[in-house]
Design a protein that fits this description.
- The protein is α/β, with parallel strands linked by helices and about 475 residues long.
- It has 3 domains: about 30 residues, no CATH class; about 220 residues, Rossmann fold; about 100 residues, no CATH class.
- About 45% of the residues lie in helices and about 10% in strands.
- The strands form 3 sheets. Strands 6-7-5-8-9-10 form a 6-stranded parallel β-sheet, sandwiched between helices. A 4-stranded antiparallel β-sheet has the order 1-2-3-4, with no helix packed on it. Strands 11-12 form a two-stranded antiparallel ribbon.
- A hairpin with a 5-residue loop joins strand 2 and strand 3.
- The termini are far apart.
- About 10% of the residues have low confidence.
- Keywords: ATP-binding, Nucleotide-binding.
- Pfam families: KTI12.
- InterPro entries: KTI12/PSTK, P-loop_NTPase.
Length: about 475
């Protein structure tokens, strides 16, 4: 329609005598990705010369003020010129207190000392499927918390593992057990007690859990749910479909269950629970198990009272079990308890050479060892130069010290050289000793003073071989 004497079409085009006038297209600015490398460089230099931030587009004063405001609100870096990563915590992961030290070597020594602090214990619950393990583990966690300990339960549900899917075949079972082992090892800290609530039906798997506790140098105990198989079947059938084992998987797991034996060190100390007799019969045993791995004293209860209580629970079998428990207490036997025992206490496990974690060493340890060995080498070379082409005889090392504290103040033993040993041979022996001392895992040295003493012994052996 005509507007102001002009015919305007849809889209803003005007009709004139010469025809339809098209709008002139505006020239688009060059996109940054279309710019050549040379143009980009010139553009950045121009921005820098004008005092404008290449990234933000504002002046550096404006960028600085904005970043400081965001840092105060906790939405940005700690400082505008600092790292974007979060600030390191004062108490590092795996430690119980802040590590302070003037030098890196002091801090490493303090961390190594703190790593030797006792780790909270590991309690393993085993039994047939649907034997009441989860209820006992939850009750045991409550008892540990009552003793002032933080407790965590590691089970299939906490790792989002479905029971029927996790045990349907050998491959799935291997994956599920590996996930449980890893979770237990991660959870062992100095601040909480770990309760492993799973099938744990194979003694080899229980041995792996015991090895984890030994590597962490902590206490360990076993809780066995001694529920009859028929009762377990009834409890499994009464569960909801998503929480119950299928009949085939239940029979497979029950058929492969290996009862724990207190004579095995990975099954000791052993506490036996019978949940089918009622929760009242379990409470004192749970308290004894929690006290056995804790620093708290175990609940005081005499052998006669234990025998009377167990005998009153019914039957000649209970009386025989009570008599056996009382006899074990009287003989001072440890490792098995059928019900609560006042004398049963878990021992602190000690890591062996196969599971021992090497202590942290200083970052410049190899340099210190090399310098200490060179002192010994120089003293031997001086004695050899004085003797000419003959044997130097007895070489002493007074004042030859690495300067380390502790064992470094002990004098080095003398070296009897009954044959000449020139500098090329000495250097070859030094290289061989350095390879043994720094590259072999089980022979790795901790300080330079020990390296000096061992190097003198090493030279004695080489003298004997060369003769």
């Amino acid at each position: 329609m005509p507007v102001g004497g002009k015919l305007v079409l849809k889209g803003g085009l005007q009709v004139k005598a010469t025809g339809v006038e098209k709008k002139k297209k505006k020239k688009k600015a060059k996109k940054e990705d279309e710019m050549t490398e040379e143009d980009k460089k010139l553009h950045e230099e121009a921005l820098k010369a004008a005092g404008i931030s290449v990234m933000g587009g504002g002046s550096y004063e404006q960028e600085f003020a904005a970043e400081m405001a965001r840092a105060k609100e906790g939405k940005a870096k700690s400082t505008p010129w600092g790292s974007g990563y979060a600030k390191a915590p004062e108490i590092l992961h795996g430690y119980s207190k802040k590590v302070k030290g003037k030098t890196a070597e002091e801090r490493l020594d303090m961390r190594a000392a703190m790593k030797t602090d006792p780790v909270m214990p590991l309690i393993v619950v085993c039994g047939l499927p649907s034997s009441g393990k989860s209820g006992a583990a939850a009750a045991l966690a409550d008892v540990c918390r009552a003793l002032g300990q933080d407790a965590v339960v590691v089970d299939e549900d906490s790792l989002h593992l479905r029971r029927n899917d996790s045990y349907k075949d050998a491959t799935s079972e291997k994956v599920a057990r590996g996930a449980l082992l890893s979770a237990v090892e991660r959870s062992l800290t100095r601040r909480r007690t770990v309760i492993c609530d799973s099938q744990n039906n194979i003694k080899g798997y229980r041995y792996q859990l015991w090895c984890i506790a030994r590597q962490a140098a902590t206490r360990y105990c076993m809780v066995h749910m001694d529920t009859p198989a028929d009762t377990c079947r009834q409890w499994n059938a009464a569960r909801p479909a998503e929480a119950a084992f299928s009949e085939a998987i239940f029979e497979d797991l029950a058929g492969r269950f290996e009862r724990p034996d207190s004579r095995n060190r990975w099954d000791a100390p052993l506490f036996t629970l019978r949940p089918h007799l009622g929760p009242a019969s379990m409470q004192e045993t749970l308290e004894a198990a929690a006290a056995a791995v804790a620093d708290a004293p175990p609940p005081q209860r005499g052998a006669a009272a234990a025998a009377a209580a167990a005998g009153s629970s019914g039957g000649d079998a209970a009386g025989n079990d009570a008599a056996a428990a009382a006899a074990a207490v009287a003989d001072g036997e440890e490792g098995f308890v059928d019900g609560p025992s006042p004398l049963l206490q878990a021992r602190q496990l000690k890591p062996k050479s196969a599971t021992d974690r090497p202590m942290l060493a200083a970052t410049n340890l190899q340099y210190e060892i090399d310098k200490a060995l060179q002192q010994v080498l120089d003293r031997v070379a001086e004695a050899q130069a004085a003797a000419g082409s003959g044997a130097p005889g007895r070489v002493t090392f007074e004042g030859c010290s690495s300067g380390s504290s502790g064992s470094g103040s002990e004098p080095l033993p003398a070296l009897d050289m009954y044959r000449p040993m020139f500098l090329p041979e000495l250097r070859r022996h030094k290289r061989g000793f350095m390879k043994l001392a720094t590259q072999q895992t089980f022979m790795r040295l901790r300080d330079a003073a020990a390296a000096q003493r061992l190097f003198v012994d090493y030279l004695k052996d080489q003298l004997a071989v060369g003769s």
